[in-house]
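Supplementary Methods, section 5.1.

A reviewer requested that the exact input to the structure prediction be made available. We therefore reproduce it here, unchanged from the version used in the analyses.
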Amino acid sequence: MAQVVCITAGAVAFSFTVDDKMYNKFVDGMTKGGAVLPAYNMLSNAVDNEQHAKFVETFSDGQNNPRATLVLEAVGMITEEFTSDLPKLVKTPTSSVSSSKETATSNS
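The structure derived from this sequence is encoded token-by-token as follows.
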């Protein structure tokens, strides 16, 4: 399911439409050792078509080099919004799991 996230950078409000496939591609790109370029590519693909020129002007230095701080901050905001409806994960301590198993076997 696609989700629209609006982010204002300077005086411009950008609309980014992100879906699972796009977000997964971004995460896969990060696991290959980079963060800025996969993030920039996702933003570039997700930004509203009519805003693309302004996006490039704002999020790169004019020589096709992404502005890392802006790019990563925007992706952080998108990640926060895009993942907000996911269930929260909590690691259960190993000792609690072992105690529960021992209690379950001793009571049978």
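The chain is about 55% helix and 15% strand. These observations are discussed further in the main text.
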